[in-house]
Write a structure and sequence with these properties.
Elements: E1 15-17, E2 23-26, H1 27-39, H2 42-49, H3 53-67, E3 72-75, E4 83-86, H4 88-121
Antiparallel strand pairs: 1-2, 3-4
Length: about 120
């Protein structure tokens, strides 16, 4: 006999915001900083993420303003071209947010199993 029971999963989205409800950090900023770190440039990161330079720079700048600290060290063009590197703060934010996101996913999976999943597995009455 085949098991026709469907499996269900919980999904959650995590971000950090300030007391005014403005985003400080989330998956979008994480992906932006990781792309900048890989490519060494906001322009290359924007292209990789299929975003405009202005959109990436605007979000990074907003986070810097809300944190009161820089996330990037920028070098201006010239013969070798310009570029951007992540500050130590940005590198810590990337690592810590990755850990937070992973922990929330694991914890929410366990909570879902304990609290809700059994209800979805029971036959209709």
């Amino acid at each position: 006999m085949t098991d026709n029971r469907k499996r269900f999963f919980i999904r959650s989205k995590v971000w950090i915001e300030d007391e005014a409800g403005k985003v400080i950090f989330g998956l979008g900023r994480l992906h932006m900083l990781e792309a900048i770190h890989r490519s060494g440039s906001i322009q290359a990161a924007a292209k990789e993420l299929k975003m405009s330079y202005r959109a990436v720079w605007g979000r990074i700048k907003a986070t810097e303003e809300r944190l009161g600290a820089p996330l990037l060290v920028k070098s201006i063009g010239g013969a070798a071209g310009g570029g951007s590197q992540l500050t130590p703060l940005a590198l810590r934010l990337v690592a810590q947010f990755r850990e937070l996101h992973r922990s929330v996913a694991i914890d929410s999976d366990g909570l879902f199993e304990r609290v809700f999943a059994a209800q979805l597995r029971q036959p209709s009455r």
